[in-house]
Amino acid sequence: MYNKLVFCLLLVVSLQIVSLEAQSYEDKRCKCICPSIKSVNNNTEDDSDRMLIIDNVPPNKCNCDGVILPRIADKIKGKEQEFCPRCDCKYENRNTTIIKVVVIIVIWIISLLVIYMLFLMCLDPLLNKRVKANYQEHTNEDEDTSVAVGSQDMQVRDGNVLNRVGHSQDKWKRQVREQRRNIYDRHTMLN
């Protein structure tokens, strides 16, 4: 089962990598942030209304002349020298393949944890039904040790996974009750 899961995961990742090679244009881009055109035409500084232009150009053309002016030259005629210094252009080189692979792995991990949680939710009623049928509250410590020895014998005899988990849960609950009694009643801590 584990081998099939690993195989499926590798298959999905390899298919994603193949599909990403066709989209390599997203990996390299020029991102320019400029003030609004109104700020140049009205000579008012309004930085709250900014323009964002993203284009796929070579690194040497990632500037106002290569990205911004071809798009808005007719709107800012004669004011290019005033507009371009306010633009901030950055060339970004990222690897979307790694980003997508990490996202796929995270989704797989979350899916496995959800499946495990559903398994435990299905298992919980079976354990609680068995525990309620065999549950006795013990008040004497001598009885606790004899029950613990008896439960260990039951664990050895009974190879059932549910019983082993249930007995471990019972042991843990007894330890928690003992700790609570020591802390709240006796005001001491267990070592």
Automatic annotation (TrEMBL):
Residues 1-22 form the signal peptide. The chain crosses the membrane at residues 98-123. One of its GO terms (cellular component) is lysosomal membrane. It comes from the Eukaryota. The keyword Transcription regulation does not apply. Keywords: Membrane, Signal, Transmembrane, Transmembrane helix. It is found in: Membrane. InterPro entries: TMEM9/TMEM9B. The keyword Metal-binding does not apply. Belongs to the TMEM9 family. This is Uncharacterized protein. The lineage of its organism: Eukaryota, Metazoa, Ecdysozoa, Arthropoda, Hexapoda. The gene is 6032860.
